[in-house]
Amino acid sequence: GQNIDQPTEMTATEGAIVQINCTYQTSGFNGLFWYQQHAGEAPTFLSYNVLDGLEEKGRFSSFLSRSKGYSYLLLKELQMKDSASYLCAVTDSNYQLIWGAGTKLIIKP
Amino acid sequence: GAVVSQHPSRVICKSGTSVKIECRSLDFQATTMFWYRQFPKQSLMLMATSNEGSKATYEQGVEKDKFLINHASLTLSTLTVTSAHPEDSSFYICSAAAGDHNEQFFGPGTRLTVL
Q1: Which pLDDT value is given to residue B36?
Q2: Cα Rg of chain A, angstroms
Q3: Among A7, A43, B42, B84, which is disulfide-ready with B114 (CB 3.0 to 4.6 Å)?
Q4: Tell me: the pLDDT tens digits for B82-111?
Q5: Residue among A87, A69, A71, A73 nearest A29 (CA)
Q6: Per-residue pLDDT for A55 more than 90?
């Protein structure tokens, strides 16, 4: 079956760095997405990786290793507004998005 | 970027009534639209995929007669929850994709509460 694993919850301190990991087993691979979702709101797009390596976009970076079925989202200079759930999603061979359960990130002052 | 809207944003209805939720792509033509449901503290669950002008493809366990989906144009898809019950209370989110639909653009979601 298809499966995406990510930690349920993480806690970090304002101003620090946090890395959220995601591992996947899917039928085919056509890209991996990271979304941010604040409580009661729809997800918002953060990043897209289809080739191995690191994609940097401001305070957020996303890494992909297709051979390992692994990705991480790196958040630097954490701000209180970064408290949210972070969803990892993989596009399979049928271009369907397979979703992880999300990682709830709690930022403490 | 691409904008997707949903209407209404919040709806409260009595058990047994039907509720229609609209999803519109405002600045692009969406060849494919997706409907998701999200229960509190859970991930998004895909309900169905619809392509303009054809019948929706429903995920296993989703009743097609209960969740009616119409994708009549390249900018509008509707989800009708028929004979709603309290267990249908959820956050319903649509997304739209264009072309190779490698990226989905999400609507803001509709909070449905069935009393």
Answers
A1: 93
A2: 13
A3: B84
A4: 999 999 999 999 999 876 545 778 888 899
A5: A69
A6: yes
**What is the C-alpha separation between B64 and B70, in angstroms, rounded?**
11
In this prediction, residues A8-26 reach a mean pLDDT of: 97
Q: Tokens representing A91? A: 């596009």
Q: Which residues of B touch A31 (CB under 8 A)?
A: 102
Q: Which two tokens stand for residue B106?
A: 């999400």
Question: Which of B113, B104, B112 lies closest to B49 in space, CA to CA?
Answer: B104
Name the residue facing A101 among B43, B102, B111 (closest C-beta): B43
Which chain A residue is nearest to residue B97, measuring alpha carbons?
Answer: A95
Burial of A46 (0-12, 13-18, 19+ CB in 10 A): middle
Chain A and chain B share a number of CB contacts under 8 A equal to: 40
Q: In chain B, what residues touch A30 (CB-CB under 8 Å)?
A: 102
- Using alpha carbons, list the distances in angstroms from residue B33 to A42, A50, A53, B36: 15, 22, 30, 10
CB contact under 8 A, A101 and B91: no
- Give the residue-averaged pLDDT of A71-97: 92
**AA letter at A94:** N
Mean pLDDT, rounded, for A76-95? 91
CA distance A14 to chain B (A): 23
Distance from CA of B112 to the nearest CA of A (A): 12
Minimal Cβ distance to B109: which of A42, A87, A95: A42
CA distance A15 to A29: 34
